[in-house]
């Protein structure tokens, strides 16, 4: 069975003292770095989705299990219908829907509180290729948003979401301090921290 393979000589590691970390293998990231460096690319990472008909607290548990604070909502045909964040579920949106509809919390679904795709804006992958992180920060600092979507077109001219940039990823990669990063939830807050000290 192993005739086509060969033995590989194992090496001693007595003189090896260090572990490589991702930060060491890449150049430091700053506001002048390419914006693509902070994009989660769905060519290599599978986006986390939820049915728009999922109950909101179940969707929140799904987020926790996947270690994300953002989900793409899809319909029965697996087509994008909107997005929902942990902040949407834990904030006022659920209570507001319950008050206006008279529904109990267990009857509130993702589609009742999500931001529909008609309300979303995005950057194109081509725009991102020519942008710096600082450009993205400037563009989004007035929005109060925590995430921005990146779209492109397939070879068959089908538009799709190619990736996402999150404020938390930017703050982590810019090495904003942990306590500060925990508080910095939007692009605007990160920009304020970097401008007024306590950042990189």
TrEMBL record:
Pfam families given in the database record: CBS (PF00571)
Annotated protein name in UniProt: CBS domain-containing protein
InterPro entries hit by this protein: CBS_dom, CBS_dom_sf, CBS_domain-containing
Any coiled-coil regions, as ranges: none
Transmembrane intervals: none
Keyword Cell division: no
Domain CBS positions: 39-100
Top-level taxon of origin: Bacteria
Keyword annotations from UniProtKB, A to Z: CBS domain, Repeat
């Amino acid at each position: 069975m192993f005739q086509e393979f060969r033995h590989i000589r194992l090496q001693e590691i007595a003189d090896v003292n260090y572990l490589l970390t991702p930060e060491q293998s890449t150049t430091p990231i700053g506001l002048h770095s390419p914006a693509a460096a902070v994009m989660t690319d769905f060519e290599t990472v599978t986006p986390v989705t939820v049915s728009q008909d999922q109950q909101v607290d179940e969707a929140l548990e799904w987020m926790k299990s996947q270690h994300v604070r953002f989900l793409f909502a899809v319909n029965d045909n697996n087509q994008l219908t909107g997005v929902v964040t942990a902040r949407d579920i834990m904030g006022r949106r659920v209570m507001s829907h319950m008050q206006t509809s008279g529904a109990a919390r267990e009857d509130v679904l993702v589609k009742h509180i999500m931001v529909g795709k008609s309300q979303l804006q995005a950057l194109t992958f081509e725009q991102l290729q020519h942008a710096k992180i600082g450009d993205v920060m400037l563009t989004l600092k007035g929005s109060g948003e925590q995430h921005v979507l990146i779209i492109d077109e397939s070879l068959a001219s089908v538009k799709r979401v190619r990736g996402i940039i999150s404020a938390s990823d930017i703050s982590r990669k810019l090495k904003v301090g942990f306590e500060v990063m925990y508080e910095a939830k939007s692009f605007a807050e990160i920009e304020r921290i970097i401008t007024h000290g306590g950042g990189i």
